[in-house]
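Q: Study each token:
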Amino acid sequence: MKERKRMEMELDRISNLPSDVTEKILLCLPIRDAVRTSVLSTKWRYKSAMLPHLVFDPQSISTQHQTFANVVDHLLLSHIGPVYKFKLAREHVSFRDIDRWILYASRNSIKEFILEILGRQRYKVPSSMFSCQDLTYLELHRCLLQPPSTFTGFKSLKSLKIVRVTLTDDVLENVIVRCPLLERLTVEWCYDFSQLNINAPNLQVLRFMGDFEDVNILNTSNLVDVFIWLRKFDHRRGPCRSSNLLKLFAQLPNIHRLYMNSKFTKYLAAGSLLEKLPKPCLHLQFLIVRVGIDDVKDIITVICLLRISPALEELEVFAFCRQTYEAEVGKVNSWLDDNQSCSFTQLRHVKIHCSQAVEGALDLIRFLLLSSPALETMTVYKHPSTPLEGYDLATKLLRFRRASLNLEIILSDLAG
């Protein structure tokens, strides 16, 4: 009897939980488990049918006895109330079924939409998707993006992420410009476009991974965080009319954080040699760059970036050699004499990753030590198997002259 009363009391507690608490509990559960809570009590019977977030993926739905499509259809048919978030991630699903589900989502006040096509075949996003005017977050994977002629934009969209999406230059540019509130843009490994043209007055964060021949970032005075991983850059396409470095940083007046890989460094190094430095990046505080230390033009490009960044506080360099370093020693050393007067007065923390050819990075390390009077820590990472021919690296680093009186030099092996 006591045990029965105890169970009844526990059920009463569950039944009488505040509605906002029960909703938070259900949102933390996979949808299959949220549906099972309907047996807890009569007050919970329809709560899972009123969830504003619907996530349909392999982790959320078990298809032991029914097909994935049947489960989704049943849950949508029994759903009550608005849908604010809709996520679909599945392989081997009929595109007709996906069209139907997107049409359902478009008829609700949907704010977040995530579509991950896990197979190899490209799915063409239906026109119903472009009528979702309440969207604030849109994420598409492995799709074909061709907006209808009636598409006027996503007026409320703040975050757009497209991964392995097929689209043309015009489509990408028009989608971006028709999202006036866009704050975050992620473009990863997309196809069939060559020009990255971005015109987004409210954009704050840009993340790009893939290929382009040229980039133009216009009307982006609010852009503060930029990550660019260029897969390839063909410097043999012919000489650029002007310096890419000069052009790009004229378009980034308020950038705060920048990450760029070695191919993008090569893109910036292309064009005519600089007769004057770009306008200062007065707000750039964090810079992460990959650079070939056996290419003098790449090194000069990075130094130019440092010289126009008077507020830079943290620098992380991934240094590597494209070829045998010893064959280029004289050439690489030549830039040292031309930059002896540099002074990076706000630089406090430096990390140098030397996956190979530690000797080649020593010139860059010595240059930074001499040019950074406020430097507090310099961490040098080397591969555990890197040979140190004839000398101890720690001793060599300690012998270098440095401008900072309060500097700690840390030598560490690369993880993995």
The first helix runs from residue 2 to 15. Residues 34-47, 327-332 have pLDDT under 50 and may be disordered. The CA atoms of residues 337 and 391 lie 25 Å apart.
